[in-house]
Amino acid sequence: MAKKARRPAAPVTPAAPAVELSEADHRTLGTLRSLADRVVEGAVASRPPHLDIPSRSLGNVRFNKAKRFIEMGSGKNRRELFNLAQAKAYMQTMLVASGCKALVEQGKSTSIRGMYYLLKHTIAGTKEETFDEQADCDPIIEDVEVALNTLREELHIYAQNKGSIVGNLVFRDSGDEIDCSRMGSGGYTIPSIVEPNVIQFLKCDAKFILHVEKDTVWRRFNEDKFWRKHNCILTHGGGQPPRGVRRLLNRMHHELKLPIYCLLDNDPWGYYIYSVIKQGSINLAYESRRMAIPGAKFVGLRSRDFERCELSPSVIIRLNDQDIKRAKQIAQYPWFVDKKPWQKEIELMLRNGFKLEVESLISKDISYVTETYVPERLAEQDFLD
Amino acid sequence: MAIADRDSTETERPSTKRRATAESMATQQRSISVSEFFSKNRHLLGFDNPRKALLTTVKEAVDNSLDACEEAGIVPELWVRIDPAGKDRFRVAIQDNGPGIVKKQIPLIFGKLLYGSKFHRLRMSRGQQGIGISAAGMYGQLTTGKPVRIVSKTAAKKPAHYFEIQIDTKTNNPEILNGKGEGIDLPFGAAGEKMMADLAIEWESEIPPDFASAEGAVPAPLESGTRVTIELEGIHKRGKGSVDEYLEQTAIANPHVTIRYRDPDGNVMEYHRSTRKLPPEAREIKPHPYGVELGRLVTMLKDFPGGTLSQFLTDSFSRVSPPVARAICEQAKLSPRARTKRIGREEADTLYRAIQETKIQNPATDCISPIGEELLLKGLRQVVPGEFYAATTRPPSVYRGNPFQIEAALAFGGSPAVQKISFDLLSQLLDESDARTLKQFLVATFDGMGPDGAEKIMRESRLGTRQSVAKLTEPERKRLFDAMRNVNLADGQSMQVLRYANRVPLQFKLRDCAVTQTIMGMNWRPYGVSQSRGSLPGGPITVMVHVASVWVPFTSESKEAIAAYPEIEKELRLALQTVGRKLGVYLKKRQSIRQEGERRNVFLRYLGEVAQAVNKINGTDAKVVYDLLMKVAKKKTSEADVQLDERGKAIVEETEKEYGGGVLIVDQDVASVEKQLLERIARRGTVSEIETATDADE
């Protein structure tokens, strides 16, 4: 271990002064250092070291009705070094902290997978690995985020890039000016870190944002130049939107004052994506402040669209047991339970016994969704909230 | 054709000519002497094959010696010596420090079958019939033509008697060959010693000091004793059913005995006593009415010197008081005052049935002397290495009017020696070994290591089975060492069963014995032991069962397996369940202690990582952090240690409560295991000799 541990440490010291650290970086380093200091202090006082990590479970989140998003409660889990069940996790947490420190100091960032490889090695004198697989490492990274009350990007860790944007918007990304109206057929890939120090909005003519679920639908809209016709911004998050996408939506909504409309599948999965965009997710409840968009609206698809749009019965997909269970669960979420239209919507889907994907509208006409369905909904102001 | 036809019809016709007449047959009919009978049916007495013959000879002599010593109240000291005497011939000599035998009786005891003191009395003893030693002598005589030689001395200042005896198999009488049919007296002192030397008589004249003697004690002169020498045809082999095994097992059940054994290869093995306390003297009892069969009853009636039926019953049997005798007579509708001489066959029959129907108190059971829990534990521990021992002695019980008592002991060996020794010792053993192949080295050096276990280790270490020991390189030794640690040898190991009847080990017919059947029929799984249905449990367990009785019911005269009487089976089960439960308690406890130990390791494993991480974040010297954390860890674990100690202490204190006594727990640290291993190797002699024996066994 000693050998491996020293290798990244060696270049840090000479390289450190060359990197210009931002204010945020200094703050992050400070919190990381205090984490380590507490261990030393504890050890000097011969107290067994421990960490208090806010709990990221369903039991520790609550729905803030005033703010209309999910907040993390005050519940904390204590992680002790001298506890048989927690010793390894404690060690791993300290490793992740040391890895983050190295990244921040070097002014570099890495993916969560990169972090896993950075820290993975055999523990001296044993045959045990610090991390057996990435799945061991990912939750520890989130633990460090919440324990230090920092953001992932502040720790110089990012997730995979996912999701695209196109529309009448110009911003600067790491110094480069990006005009989202000139992105060809592929659009601009939304980076994982979209904080103001990375992305600064320069110019926006768009009047609203249309967020669609997946790439195929997004392409349809882009090819039909929907955003140009309706003067909007078009995004997708590749299914469940990652943090970068959610954060960018949040920033555009708040900073550019753009309303957001979501076009998602008519199934429990689509409902949940909407729920995450609007109220935040349980796992990242501590990020809701920066991520949740309580004003987001649900355009479709709706349970009644099968009849309203006179779709062919061949496009329906039967609900399976899991769908039904999940739908009932979602209906019981505190942020849905008081909303009559949503209760009706879910009830109708259950009564229908089938779900509809956005793509099913293509059976009417290739551009039905862009030329008829969405414009009609927007004109009618027919949304679910 | 015609002739042939006539011939065939003639042969088919029943022959009118008698093949033999009653008279001619009568010339062939004569009595068979016991000796003749047994010389033809030697398997009945345990002389089925040359290997077993050697064992049986030793066994009969040793059993007799021990019985004699105990009866005389002498702490037994035995010398067993087997010398090769030509191809497949051995000279077996057994000497004891017993009371000796008076001159007149020597020829009869060794030269006449069915002569002895034990048959006619009901008393717990090793021998029962008085066939054994004379049969061994007869076997020797049949196979080698050599007489049995006996030296016996009854007191320090008295002469020793020397006899060379043969059995006349026709008449079952002894023939004395030396001293003109009178034997020779060897006077006390120098003259006798010279005579012994001239006649090439071997005699141990002094007893070496034992454990209890003071430091620098000198050997004590042998005051009395008997030495019997038999030359016979036999095969000497080690392993199961061998003399070595018999003596080892005898030592377990007789912790008051010291045996010095010199095998045909000149190796000396000594089994030292762990106590000087003799087992309490077994009392002789009268038979209990329930245990008597009709035929025996008739004989007893006939032999009764005369008197009334009531007198006969009260005098001949135990637990028959005059009122009980009256009750029996009433039941049989016979007068208590009837003369026994006048009781006929039919009346004896009614009397027999009346006895069975009358309620009679069970026989007194103080006639049995069990080994006792303490000595069972001691004896077992001396011979079977292990970490946990439990023993129990059941209260006496009765089958068919015969009192008996069951004892059971159990040894549980943790990891075998092979997993405990250090690399240095392994190297040393490898250097000293003269085994030809590595497999032989493993099997011969380590106890409880079978060929299968050795194979497993070889496979794990990626060394060939034929790998020569001498040519092992250092890395190969290291690999062997690692493999020895990692291979799970407990897999496939099954319970060892040691069976004893009146302190005599039973080495054959394992499957036929009530003991084994009871073990297999029990469910051992609740005690934390693996067992597949209807077979012996698995794991490093040795179970020892002692059946003590005034009359042990064997399945055959060769005394190899105990018959399954329901009463005996029930007691066996209860005894085994008791030791099984104790093992269960121990295994559960061990499990929890092991978990505590793991706990500490887990902390220590991660301290280095944490210290490095802290160092990288805030620059504190990793060594300093590590040492500090280590200090905290030590404080933390010492708290755990205290708990452990409390537990450990609790074991000592609560042993009585938790296990109900009869338990011995041995700490198996590396040093003691290595010491034990070296001792065993020293006792066993060189590896190559054992190895040839094991090869032959396979």
Alpha-beta content class of chain A: alpha/beta
Number of helices of chain B: 22
CATH topology of the largest domain in chain B: Heat Shock Protein 90
CATH fold title of the largest domain in chain A: Dna Topoisomerase Vi A Subunit, Chain: A, domain 2
Radius of gyration of chain A: 23 Å
Main sheet: strand order of chain A: 10-7-13-12-14-15
Using the CA coordinates, give the radius of gyration of chain B. Answer: 32 Å
* Approximate strand percentage of chain A: 15-25%
The shape of chain B is: globular
Please tell me the CATH architecture of the largest domain in chain A by its name. 3-Layer(aba) Sandwich
Contiguous runs where pLDDT drops below 50 for at least 5 residues of chain B: 1-5, 642-656, 684-698
So what's the CATH class of the largest domain in chain B? Alpha Beta
Tertiary shape of chain A: globular
How many extended strands of chain A?
17
CATH class designation of the largest domain in chain A: Alpha Beta
List unreliable stretches of 5+ residues of chain A: 1-16
